[in-house]
Amino acid sequence: MRADPFSEVDANRLSQSKYSVFRSVESLASMTIADRSGDGNLVSIRDLVFSRDERKIFDGIDLDIRRGKVTAIMGPSGTGKTTLLKLIGGQLRPDRGTVVFDGKVVHEQGLRDLYALRRKMGMLFQTGALLTDIDVFENVAFPLREHTRLPESMIRTLVLMKLQAVGLRGARHLMPAQLSGGMARRVALARAIALDPMMIMYDEPFTGQDPISLGVLVKLIRDLNHSLGLTSVLVSHDVHETLSIADYIYMISEGKIVGQGTPEELDRSASQFVAQFVHGLADGPVPFHYPSDADYAGDLMGPVKRRPGARH
Amino acid sequence: MLQGWGIWALGGVQRIGRAHIFLAHVLLGLPGLLLRLRLLVREMYVVGVLSMLLIAISGLFVGMVLALQGHNVLSEFDAEQSLGVLVAASLVRELGPVVTALLFSGRAGSALTAEIGLMKATEQLSGMEMMAVDPIKRVVAPRFFAGLLSMPLLAALFSMVGVLGGYFVGVGLLGVDEGAFWAQMQAKIDFEEDIINGIIKSLVFGLIVTWIAVFEGYDAVPTAEGVSRATTRSVVYSAFAVLGSDFVLTALMLRGE
Questions:
Q1: Chain B: which residues have CB within 8 Å of chain A?
Q2: What is the pLDDT of residue A275?
Q3: Which residues on B lie below 8 Å from A195 (Cβ)?
Q4: CB within 8 A of A57, min separation 6: which ones?
Q5: Among partner residues A91, A127, A146, which is closest to B129 by beta-carbon distance?
Q6: Where in A53-174 does DSSP place strands (E)?
Q7: Taking CA atoms, what residue in B is nearest to A123?
Q8: Using CA atoms, how far apart are residues B180 and B88, in angstroms rounded to an integer?
Q9: Is residue B10 part of a domain?
Q10: Which chain B residues have a beta carbon less than 8 Å from that of A147?
Q11: Which residues of chain A have pLDDT under 50?
């Protein structure tokens, strides 16, 4: 193990400090704070099984998220990528297996401990999930006001710093309804980093973005990860953007991990599924046709059944 | 079919159970709310103050109609002088709490359900949970207690304006003696039996209407259709619950007299 110039207590104190000003300066050092603290994995998932409405979403998956890295979870729509984030955040309970975050089993925590754990995580929802009745400034200030008793002047400084980091200091008086989708996600990102979490989970951050917003988000995720010493978990099916910023990638399909590795390793992967996904092929292990009981000819020539709700 | 009924009944029981656990969770939010009274005041403005105009206008018309109808019946027995008692007793005991609760559920209850349901649909509640903020304590509790406190005040406003409406019609239009109108009202309306019982009713209705409204919003299916159904359910269930509990409360109160 590397010689550790900081004790773990110091690192934790810094990582949870409300005074992110000092945190940001500290993180300029070549080695991130997250790198310095003990175990290399911030999140460890073992033998995770989770079902919804009798459909098995995860069937015994093992997955690690390394501290200080950008880890991407990829897979076709409906494979439960967002569900995985909710399991890590303790919003859902697994049927079997464990999700360990920073040394603690998430679903074994009481409500108070779970909330204490969540203060170490930030989550960027696909829609931004901004509070619609307050403006941009108040949205970013929201977690600070809820969890700290900082004076108003300090809150103002912190909010403006966070907004400056995402390039939206000038938009602080706008209401969420006045923001474009990309801007809303950037405000949500500023809010997610307001309490200086150890980890940020991004739920489909690139979906439906124009090329400029896409570029901004890619840059922000990468830069914030480095400058704030964060650990990032990125759930996405946008291959190009994800491969460009992820350090390690897991591919999930039908409840199992079907491929994993660095972007280069996945690019060279012999797995048919990985090749289909990375290169966007229409047919392959994920078939073009949804499974049907009857063959095509038999279906066309079959008897006409009256369908409930159909107009005749 | 029997199986279908069974599933329906079990689902209903489960939902009632969830609603009670939810209520307990909301009530636990009271101590935190007392430390942040600004949240409560803000919601009381939205839920209570903005309902005042509707309640006042409705109360005025109900009082005026009561005076017209009451005068019509009382004059047959040469008892027009008792119009003040009739109007005030009807309003304070029954119509004030009940009609206010029904109007309140249509105006504020439906808005609460839709607002909380939409917050759920747009992941705002989920976002709060991930920011380690309990949405039941932060979003639901202030709205619930604001509704609970606003209802008796609004019912009092309804009754007060209703009495004034009755006065305008009875004394102003129909020529009932002004002194008798007020004096009989003062003599016959009992503080405990009428006013306190009215306040108890309006508190119970406030609890029922606001509880149903916030629970329906929180339990809504997070889609446009889900929120719309929840809003409809909120108003319909509130109406049933208010009218049903009014019967029970009235029976209990009359028994105590």
A1: 119, 122-124, 126-127, 129-134, 138
A2: 76
A3: 131
A4: A50, A51, A79, A80, A83, A255
A5: A91
A6: 55-66, 70-74, 96-101, 104-105, 121-124
A7: B130
A8: 13
A9: no
A10: 132-133
A11: 1-38
Interface test with B, best of A93, A113, A115 (most B CBs within 10 A): A115
Looking at the partner chain, which of A91, A119, A147 has a beta carbon nearest the beta carbon of B126? A91
Is the Cβ pair A125, B127 closer than 8 Å?
yes
Q: What is the pLDDT of residue A20?
A: 45
User: B20 is written with which tokens?
Assistant: 């009670």
B60 has pLDDT over 50: yes
Question: Number of folded domains in chain B?
Answer: 1
Strand segments, DSSP code E, in A177-236 are: 199-203, 231-236
Closest Cα of chain A to B131: distance in Å? 6
Q: Which residues of A touch B138 (CB under 8 A)?
A: 146
Does residue B161 lie within any of the structural domains? yes
Residue whose C-alpha is closest to residue A204's, from A120, A124, A88, A258: A124
* B224 Cβ contact partners less than 8 Å away, ≥ 6 residues apart: B121
Q: Which of residues 233-262 of A touch B (CB under 8 A)?
A: none
Instruction: Give residue A223's pLDDT.
Output: 87
What's the gap in Å between the CA of B80 and the closest CA on chain A? 53
Rounded Cα gap, residues B7 and A305, in angstroms? 29
Q: What pTM did the predictor assign?
A: 0.80
Give, in order, the Cα–Cα distances in Å from A136 to each of A19, A159, A160, A307. Answer: 21, 10, 11, 49
B9 assigned to some structural domain: no
Q: Is B21 part of a structural domain of the chain?
A: no
The tokens describing B5, both together, are 């009924």
CA–CA distance, A156 with B62 (Å, rounded to integer) = 51
What whole-number distance in Å separates Cα of residue B44 and Cα of residue B147?
A: 7
Share of chain B above pLDDT 70, in %: 99
Residue A99 pairs with which residues in a beta bridge?
A45
Q: What share of chain B is helix, strand, coil (3-state, %, to 5)?
A: 90, 0, 10
Dihedral (Cα; A292, A297, A300, A306), 10-degree rounding? -50
The range of the structural domain enclosing residue B43 comes to 38-256
Q: Which residues contact B139 (CB under 8 A, 6 or more apart)?
A: B116, B119, B125, B128
Within an 8 Å CB–CB cutoff, is residue A113 touching chain B? no
Report how far residue A197's alpha carbon sits from residue A120's, in angstroms, rounded to the nearest whole number.
4
pLDDT tens, position by position, B227-237:
999 999 999 99
Which pLDDT does position A18 carry in this prediction?
42
> Which residues from chain A sit within 8 angstroms of residue B122, using beta carbons?
127, 129, 132
Residues 30-89 of A with CB under 8 A from B: 89
